[in-house]
Design goal:
It is a single chain. The chain is α+β, with helices and mostly antiparallel strands. It is 25% helix and 37% strand. Strands 1-2-3-4-5-6-8-7 form an 8-stranded mixed sheet. The protein is globular. The two termini are 23 Å apart.
Length: 149
Amino acid sequence: MDKIANNGQIRAMEVRDIPEVMKIESEQGVSSWTAPKFESALRAGDSGVVIESDDSLIGFILVKTISGVCEILTIGVSPDVRRQGIGVVLLEYVLRDVDEAILEVRRSNAAAIGLYERMGFTECGVRKGYYNNGGEDAIVMKKSASSRT
């Protein structure tokens, strides 16, 4: 476990974390991630990281990394600690040893898009009607090692 700001600890996500991860996920609004989907991803070898503070989870990220390319599958931060750098810590942690990263983000999620742009991600495409809940478009963003912050 690594220490982070606010007396938090960062560590690998485990199946036992899924109930708390789902609580944060549900507080983000519309999501296609379910507890069985998280469990399946972890069992399939995808990597998750959580941040704990005072014995509760305050943030998580789940990624799939293949041949130096990291796909950010989902990320979430508890509403109580948003805009305190938790998302940055999670992203920096999973991006430290990859050549490239890619993600999709809802077109309407201005806060997340702003975070990703500050982290060096740039728009590289659009997936029309990507999100099932309402058919919202996804902005595809990527970051290469040369654009690390």
